[in-house]
């Protein structure tokens, strides 16, 4: 009854949800592309050039993600302020630490330990990002940041597992055209990238539900 009496409230709530979903989708796309390109460069045999290129891509993606988050929840004037660069560096370092831990421990144990480590790192980074981009709603806490961090870490674990523990390719029968023959194939690692993007969207949607006014 109160909503019916205040139709503007329903409109504002709908707009906030649309903004939250749109921002979450944008950030998920940025994160999927940046982390995916970095992961593809360094997960196999890596060189100094590929490692540096991967770090550059990862940092640019982290900085862009911070920009989208800041533009959604606060008034962003300068992304190159030290505290905002620190948030992007923390995210970049978190992904590097995650992969190093997974490789040092190895196998399923490495995957599990790295997932726990990444969850902790992302929780801290999300809290830091909320301090960098203050909002009008409740202050950031470890508890509110834990669920989005866990979702993103599970997506990362799925991506790593698809590269480490599976070697399967799904292909369609040859499709004959007039001048050529086409075969469509999907590698399991491609599904890992897709799963990571989905978990990234769910994680950031959860974040925006917390930071945007109810």
From TrEMBL:
It comes from the Archaea. Keywords: Membrane, Transmembrane, Transmembrane helix. The chain crosses the membrane at residues 21-39, 51-73, 85-102, 108-128, 140-162, 182-203. This is Uncharacterized protein.
């Amino acid at each position: 009854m109160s909503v019916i009496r205040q139709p503007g409230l329903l409109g504002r709530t709908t707009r906030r949800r649309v903004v939250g979903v749109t921002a979450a989708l944008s950030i998920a796309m940025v994160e999927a592309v940046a982390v995916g390109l970095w992961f593809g460069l360094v997960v196999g045999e890596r060189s100094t050039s590929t490692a540096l290129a991967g770090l550059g891509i990862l940092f640019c993606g982290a900085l862009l993600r911070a920009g989208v988050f800041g533009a959604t929840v606060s008034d962003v004037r300068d992304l190159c302020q030290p505290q905002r660069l620190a948030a992007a560096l923390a995210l970049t370092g978190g992904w590097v630490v995650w992969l190093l831990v997974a490789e040092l421990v190895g196998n399923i144990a490495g995957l599990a330990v790295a997932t726990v480590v990444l969850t902790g790192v992302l929780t801290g980074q999300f809290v830091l990002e909320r301090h960098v981009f203050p909002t009008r709603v409740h202050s950031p806490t470890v508890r509110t940041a834990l669920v989005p961090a866990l979702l993103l870490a599970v997506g990362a674990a799925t991506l790593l597992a698809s590269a480490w523990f599976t070697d399967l390719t799904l292909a369609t029968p040859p499709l004959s055209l007039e001048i050529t023959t086409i075969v469509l194939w999907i590698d399991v690692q491609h599904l890992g990238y897709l799963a990571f993007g989905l978990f990234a969207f769910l994680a950031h949607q959860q974040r925006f539900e917390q930071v945007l006014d109810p």
